[in-house]
Write a structure and sequence with these properties.
The complex is a heterodimer of chains A (122) and B (251). In chain A, 34% of the residues lie in helices and 30% in strands. Chain A is built from three helices and five strands. By secondary structure, chain A is an alpha+beta fold. Chain A has helices at residues 3-12, 40-54, 102-118, and strands at 16-23, 28-32, 69-74, 78-84, 87-96. Chain B has 251 residues and is an alpha+beta fold. Chain B has helices at 6-16, 32-42, 88-102, 127-133, 145-152, 175-187, 189-199, 240-250; strands at residues 25-26, 47-53, 56-63, 66-72, 109-113, 125-126, 159-164, 167-173, 207-216, 219-226, 229-236. In chain B, a hairpin with a 2-residue loop joins β3 (56-63) and β4 (66-72). In chain B, α5 runs antiparallel to α8. The model of chain B is unreliable at 13-21 (pLDDT under 50). Classes of the chains: A alpha+beta (122), B alpha+beta (251). The interface between A and B is medium-sized, with 30 and 36 residues. β3 (69-74) of chain A pairs antiparallel with β9 (207-216) of chain B, so a sheet runs across the interface.
């Protein structure tokens, strides 16, 4: 995963306000889009939420199976959390406007991992 | 005196419920227009729907949860006219026809039949678009959002447990998925909710959380928290975007 992958995702989906790649096990944001002006505190909050929702590793917070993807909807935003296929402690974390076209966004967000894997990085 | 035969009992039942004599299903009458829109929203396979109330009828072709055309009971300017998704004027006329039929409707029934084989049903409008054309939500706004969410997701949600202050109430749906939900409810849910409430700045109410594939591969779990009323439910993983968008429209 590179910043350009996140830039491409936000460029294709203007309703995606934040895209970050993070180690949810440690709560460290590894990458954001290059033009991101999101405060560090806000990214930390997103990491905490992602870790609580997906579970930090292979143990799901709800259910019997590891959770590869979670979506949270509240009155102000839609949050998307996608666990990295090759490293369960890493995740793509996105905050979107409620108006986002979710199906196509999820498809493009997953494609970021595929592109990264194809280039030997995730 | 001999005991009544099965045929006798069926005949007696038929007399008690004459609405079923024409093969039609009796619909809830809390809001006839919302009920009609809900039927459209719940019809996935191509189908001819015929609504009847007293001496009036409204028939239509529906597919993919969208209205293709009204075939009976509408003014000439919209009758038997395909409804392109981008024709707002035609959508409004169709919506007005549904509204006129629903206005004052009593004893509403619906019958289902296969559509004509030679009809191209590619032009269609959604129940949401029809409702929006009338400036109203597709559901009765007086109905609680959780119930409206379940109504909108009818046919997609496979099992649901109603929770009131985290105490399980009504449980319905697939036995296998209910087992998965019960395990979540008894062993994980309180910790999940409390941890998020205590540690997460993004915690908000109302909210919907969807977790992919946590019950089984292809079967996901969802949790709606809305004041004291909550639901824990299961659904196919490929329905997650629809569930999220449906909930977003209701809050």
């Amino acid at each position: 995963m590179r910043s350009t992958d996140l830039n491409g995702l936000i460029g294709a989906h203007p309703d995606c306000l934040v895209a970050a790649y993070a180690d949810i096990g440690t709560g460290v944001t590894l990458l954001t889009s290059t033009d991101s002006t999101v405060p560090r505190e806000a990214l930390d909050d997103l990491c905490v939420e992602a870790a609580l929702t997906l579970g930090p590793g292979d143990i799901p917070p709800l259910g019997a199976e590891p959770c590869p993807q979670a979506i949270k909807v509240d009155a102000t935003a839609i949050y998307v959390y996608l666990r990295a296929p090759d490293d369960p402690s890493d995740a793509l974390i996105c905050k979107c406007r409620p108006t986002i076209a979710l199906s196509s966004f999820l498809k493009d967000a997953r494609a970021c991992f595929v592109a990264g894997a194809a280039e030997g990085r995730v | 005196m001999t005991s009544p035969t099965r045929a006798d009992r069926l005949a007696a039942l038929a007399e008690e419920t004459p609405e079923f004599s024409k093969g039609a299903r009796v619909l809830s009458m809390s809001d006839p227009l919302a009920t009609i829109l809900d039927e459209i929203d719940a019809t996935v396979l191509p189908m001819a729907l015929r609504f009847e109330t007293e001496d009036r009828a409204l028939a239509m072709l529906v597919s993919g949860r969208r209205l293709h055309r009204i075939t009976e009971g509408a003014p000439d300017d919209v009758l038997d006219t395909p409804l392109p998704v981008d024709d707002a004027n035609l959508t409004e006329r169709a919506a007005r026809a549904l509204e006129a039929f629903a206005n004052g409707a009593t004893d509403l029934t619906v019958a289902y039949a296969a559509p004509p084989a030679d009809v191209d049903m590619s032009d269609r409008v959604s129940a949401d678009a029809l409702a929006a054309a009338l400036g109203r939500d597709a559901d009765d706004p007086d109905v609680p959002p959780v119930k409206r969410f379940l109504s909108r997701m009818r046919g997609t949600i496979t099992a649901v447990i109603h929770l009131n202050d985290r105490v399980a109430g009504e449980m319905t749906g697939s036995a296998a998925d209910l087992t998965g939900l019960r395990i979540i409810l008894t062993s994980q849910l309180s910790t999940f909710v409390d941890t998020r409430a205590n540690q997460c700045a993004l915690h908000a109410d109302p909210s919907l959380t969807l977790l992919a594939d946590v019950i089984a591969s292809g079967t996901s779990a969802g949790l709606v928290i809305f004041d004291a009323e909550s639901i824990l439910f299961s659904l196919p993983t490929d329905a997650l975007p629809r569930a999220a968008e449906t909930f977003r429209r209701l809050i």
